[in-house]
């Protein structure tokens, strides 16, 4: 027990804060980031406009180059671009945290009686909101481009949920990596670099069977492939159980342990 | 704060902290009685920030004990955190948010309810002269405004102990005066404060006690006056009429040990350690007069804290 003298005013929280505080403080942190977006709407241009641009360009440029069995290429390609976009957005979670970790604000957070995981969780929640908005916009544009979700509104909700869940998990992984790297500029390059091959060596643009032979084993186990396969299965009304379990496994692997490590790292850095 | 009279807000004993092979703290003892404003004085690299970070539970010491507000900081960091406010070396603010939301965020994360935080934020904005700017993004604030907002943020949760790491560094003289006024007001209200500073005259003028940290050790502690007395004898200051400093130095050098004599030719100023008190002053005055060197001013005075500090850090502790 803490032998607190009268200096510590009565009624203050003396011990480790409980789960109620974790939820409250995480939402406060999420609110902080979302408020920053609201007050600086320019920061939303990249996450919301760029995916639309990429979607329109990719579909327009590549549609007549490629063909896949079982339907038009755009129906095949659009889930790939959606997940690729999630992959390219996820590093933002890590970059924001490593940028915060270097400021006096991080020290102030660390000196407050808040749960130490609240900053990471709060940032992830605010990025989940961004992933949601992104997925909504992309689905809308994809629909205009002729993308069909055969499973209807439930399917659209499912696709958005996949983008949010996968993006958030990847974001948590990025948070750990970024805090491990520690330096903002290095982290910027180091996080985006592996994500380009990660997005391409997958089933995002072509069926795994049509990739160069040496890429196929990588593409098969790639989590991007798992996410793309689930989105396609939802859109085309295919079987879901196995792909969803596969994706759930990846989501957990990317978020649980890296999340705990990221929290430890956050509390100690620098 | 009558209930806390006589209590120790900070009680650190034998605190050691190393970073790799660098021994930042080599066994620091520090006590800060409740209600006092105490300065931690030391050159860059002395270990001030490391000590502050340990006291604020941002770091954990390798050995030694740290009790803050009656709680063991290593065993009960959350208890300590609920009673302290930290103003770090770099402003703990989100520049992309308005001042008001910065205060709200820190208050709410500290445990205040929404209404209470709102009231407190408005009070503090008023008190620190930030009310007209409180709705603006912090990135539009001047350096002095940022510092005041930063201080206001660390006061949101009514800390019993406020820890400030170089609060006046980088401020213009006007902002520095404002900040000191705010700190003295807090002191009058009963808040205990520990601050680090490199501005010796500030520690001299405003604090109740000074701890001098050098190479990871507290090498002296006491009131500013005690430190000056400890640093040695009084000083004779001589200001010459004309540029005769070199001649005067030769003249005095025959009677005074070289280490006791400091000559600044550009400002025509001589400083002599007064080992014989008024006798040293008389000797110097007679010598100069006999040689026909005009004296604009001559005085016997206490050493400045700068001189005390240099004498202490150059002393046997090293």
Multimeric status of the protein: heterodimer
Number of strands of chain B: 14
Greatest interface and its participating residue counts: A-B, 35 and 49 residues
- Secondary-structure-based class of chain A equals mainly alpha
Mean pLDDT of chain A: 88
Please tell me how large the radius of gyration of chain A is.
Answer: 21 Å
Strand content of chain B: 25-35%
Give the overall shape of chain A, derived from the CA principal axes. Answer: elongated
Estimate percent helicity of chain A: over 70%
Can you write the helix and strand succession of chain B as a string? EEEHEEHEHHHEHEHEEHEHEEHEH
Number of helices of chain B: 11
Integer-rounded radius of gyration of chain B: 24 Å
How does the overall form of chain B come out from the CA principal axes?
elongated
Low-confidence runs of chain B (pLDDT<50, min 5 residues)? none
SSE topology sketch:
The complex is a heterodimer of chains A (270) and B (318).
Chain A: H1 19-39, H2 45-62, H3 73-89, H4 91-101, H5 104-110, H6 118-144, H7 152-181, H8 184-200, H9 216-221, H10 223-236, H11 241-268
Helix pairs in contact in A: 1-6, 2-3, 2-6, 3-6, 3-7, 3-8, 3-10, 4-6, 4-7, 4-8, 6-7, 7-8, 7-10, 7-11, 10-11
Chain B: E1 8-19, E2 22-33, E3 37-41, H1 48-55, E4 63-68, E5 71-72, H2 77-81, E6 84-87, H3 99-109, H4 114-127, H5 143-155, E7 161-165, H6 173-188, E8 192-197, H7 200-206, E9 209-214, E10 217-222, H8 224-230, E11 235-240, H9 245-253, E12 261-264, E13 269-273, H10 278-290, E14 295-301, H11 305-313
Parallel strand pairs in B: 3-8, 3-9, 6-7, 7-8
Antiparallel strand pairs in B: 1-2, 1-4, 4-5, 9-10, 11-13, 11-14, 12-13
Helix pairs in contact in B: 3-4, 3-5, 8-11
């Amino acid at each position: 027990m803490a032998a607190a003298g009268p200096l510590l005013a009565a009624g203050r929280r003396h011990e480790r804060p409980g789960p109620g505080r974790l939820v409250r403080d995480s939402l406060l942190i999420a609110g902080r980031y979302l408020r920053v977006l609201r007050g600086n709407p320019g920061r939303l241009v990249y996450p919301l406009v760029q995916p639309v641009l990429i979607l329109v360009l990719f579909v327009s440029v590549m549609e007549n180059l490629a063909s896949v069995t079982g339907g038009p290429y755009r129906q095949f390609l659009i889930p790939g671009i959606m997940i690729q976009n999630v992959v390219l957005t996820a590093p933002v979670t890590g970059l924001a945290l490593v940028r915060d970790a270097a400021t006096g604000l991080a020290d102030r957070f660390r000196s407050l009686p808040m749960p130490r995981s609240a900053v990471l969780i709060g940032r992830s929640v605010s990025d989940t909101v961004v992933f949601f908005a992104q997925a909504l916009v992309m689905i809308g544009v994809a629909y205009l481009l002729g993308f069909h979700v055969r499973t209807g509104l439930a399917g659209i909700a499912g696709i958005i949920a996949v983008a949010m869940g996968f993006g958030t998990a990847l974001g948590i992984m990025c948070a750990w990596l970024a805090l491990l790297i520690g330096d903002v500029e290095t982290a910027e390059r180091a996080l985006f670099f592996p994500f380009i091959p990660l997005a391409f060596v997958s089933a995002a643009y072509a069926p795994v069977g049509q990739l160069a032979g040496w890429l196929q084993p990588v593409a098969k186990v790639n989590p991007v492939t798992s996410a793309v396969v689930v989105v396609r299965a939802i859109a085309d009304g295919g079987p879901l159980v196995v792909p969803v379990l596969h994706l759930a496994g990846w989501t957990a692997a990317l978020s649980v342990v890296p999340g705990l490590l990221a929290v430890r790292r956050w509390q100690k850095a620098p | 704060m009558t209930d806390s009279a006589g209590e120790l807000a900070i009680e650190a004993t034998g605190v050691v902290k190393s970073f790799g092979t660098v021994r930042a703290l080599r066994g620091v003892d520090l006590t800060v009685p409740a209600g006092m404003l105490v300065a931690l004085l030391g050159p860059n690299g002395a270990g001030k920030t490391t000590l502050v970070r340990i006291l604020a539970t941002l770091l954990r010491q390798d050995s030694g004990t740290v009790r803050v507000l009656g709680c063991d900081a290593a065993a009960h960091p959350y208890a300590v955190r609920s009673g302290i406010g930290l103003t770090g070396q770099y402003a703990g603010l989100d520049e992309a948010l308005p001042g008001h939301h910065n205060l709200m965020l820190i208050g709410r994360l500290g445990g205040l309810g929404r209404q209470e935080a709102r009231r407190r934020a408005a009070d503090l904005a008023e008190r620190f002269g930030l009310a007209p700017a409180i709705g603006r993004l912090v990135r539009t604030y001047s350096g002095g405004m940022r510092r005041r907002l930063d201080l206001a943020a660390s006061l949101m949760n009514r800390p019993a102990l406020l820890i400030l790491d170089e609060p006046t560094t980088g401020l213009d003289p006007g902002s520095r005066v404002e900040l000191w006024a705010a700190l003295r007001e807090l002191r009058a209200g009963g808040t205990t404060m520990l601050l680090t500073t490199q501005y010796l005259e500030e520690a001299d003028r405003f604090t109740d006690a000074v701890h001098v940290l050098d190479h990871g050790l507290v090498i002296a502690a006491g009131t500013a006056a005690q430190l000056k007395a400890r640093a040695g004898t009084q000083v004779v200051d001589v200001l010459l009429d004309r540029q005769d400093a070199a001649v005067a130095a030769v003249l005095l050098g025959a009677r005074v040990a070289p280490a006791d004599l400091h000559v600044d030719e550009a400002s025509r100023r001589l400083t002599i350690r007064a080992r014989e008190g008024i006798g040293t002053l008389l000797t110097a005055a007679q010598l100069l007069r006999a040689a026909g060197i005009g004296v604009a001013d001559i005085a016997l005075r206490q050493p400045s804290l700068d001189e005390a500090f240099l004498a202490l850090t150059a002393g046997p502790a090293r």
